[in-house]
Structure formats: structure tokens, C-alpha cells
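Predict structure. Chain length: 289.
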Amino acid sequence: MQNHSTASSPPVARAQPAAELIDIGVNLAHDSYDADREAVITRARGAGVTQMIVTGSGFASTVGAIALARQHPGGLFATAGVHPHHAGELSGARVAELEELARQPEVVAVGECGLDYFRNLSPRETQREAFHRQLELAARVGKPVFLHQRDAHADFAAILREHAARWRGVAHCFTGTAEELGCYLQLGLAIGITGWICDERRGAHLGALMPQIPAERLLLETDGPYLLPRDLRPKPASRRNEPAYLPQIAAAVARARGETVQYVSRSSTGAARALFQLPEAPAQSVLRS
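Prediction complete.
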């Protein structure tokens, strides 16, 4: 996905959610947030997003994610991992370095890790080796996995099964088929839903799948700065996504499930806290009615 301009006007004010939300995947260390990162965090809190998990997708972004979490204790958390695009970073000599990062108290999951055969920015064998190493690492440190899969379902599922019958973790940014969803649920994974569900061109099929996800395994994420919800009205001046737009995703999921936004907000927040062992949000981050 292309980089987004760092110049971004504040989002148009939107209706406040009836319950707090947790964004379980935002690339907040991305350089598109450099000019206004603190304002992004403030806007998220104003929209009811009281906690966020900052994605580590390589060594540099993992270090950045941990630094952000330390600056906002109890509000921001981090993952530690190497995305399949960067699988070559995870040589055997660097596994210990990643393990040291993964053991930091601010880190709540290992990843973003997995397989991506759509772009093949790393050789497939290198991707598979890095994936094996990170699953082994997650088992050693006792933390869940934050998983990426694109056009690689068969190998992805086979590797997960090779390591364990059931996994504590989340299939991040799920955009797949009913068959893939059933497989991930059988493996014990939670399912992360992004603004892809708001895209009438690519995500229309997801609506019918939403009722199949148990509430205790349905998580919400923006994957910002990517995947700006296409149904935002009025459209933001910038194409950059940010956590303040998470209520738009919650509303789309609620419509597809025939549930209230309040219910989806509360259930997804509870599911995120349970999976990642998050504390309650700091008092200053919780909206008061």
C-alpha cells in the first residue's frame, strides 16, 4: 500500500459510541503519523477508542511501537514481530533480539507474522522459516500471535497446525472466505475485522460471514494508516486512516450481525482484553457520559 501524506486535517466530528472501543491493530509508528501523532491519539480517545495496540512489523517498527507504548502506559500497547514482507530480517542470529523485544511488558503479542504470497516481497521459503521461528517464540514467551495471511491459506493453516492444535491469537485483517473463517475458528483464533468490511467493492462478502464469528472472538481494528473506510461521510480530506474511525467499522459489523453498536463495542472490547490480557483503560481515557 502506498504511503500517505503526513498533512492531515482533523476528522469531521462524528457521533460518540455508547461504549469504549479497543483498536487491536494500528501502525501508529508509521511515518504518516509523524507530524500529528499525539493529535491522532487525542482524536481516538475523543471517539471512544480508549486503548490501541501498535503493530510491530519489523525490528525498527517494533522498537517504535514499544517506545510509543511506554509514552502512554495503559493506553497504548505493542506487538513484536516481523511481517512476511520483511522475513529476511529474521535470520537465526536475530531471533534472540526479537525475543528480548517480545518479552518487554508493553508487548502483548508476537507478530505481525505469517505468510503473504500476494506480493512475495520475500521468498516463500524465507517467509515460512520466519513464521515458524515466530510461532516458536510466541510459545516460549507465552504471548498470543498477531497473524497475517494473504493468498497463502493452505500453507498458513498447515504451519499453525504443525505447531499446535489450537492457538491463542488473532487472524488480523480478515478478508477471506467462509472456508477460511471456519478453519481459523476451528484453530481457536480470534478474528480481526477492519474497514475492508466498509468497502462495497472488495468487502461485500464479509457481511454474511459476521454472524458466524462468536462474539468472544470478534475483534475490531483500523490497520491505520491503511484501509480508510470507504463509507465515511463526509469523506476525509486525507486518505490516511486513523483510530478515530474505528466506530465506523463497529457500526458496519453491528449492522451485519443484526446487533446494536453498543453490544458490538462492549463485546469486542471484552474480547480484546481477554486475548491480550489488557488492563482497564486509564481513567482519563474513558469517555464520561
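Summary: DSSP finds nine helices and eight strands in the chain.
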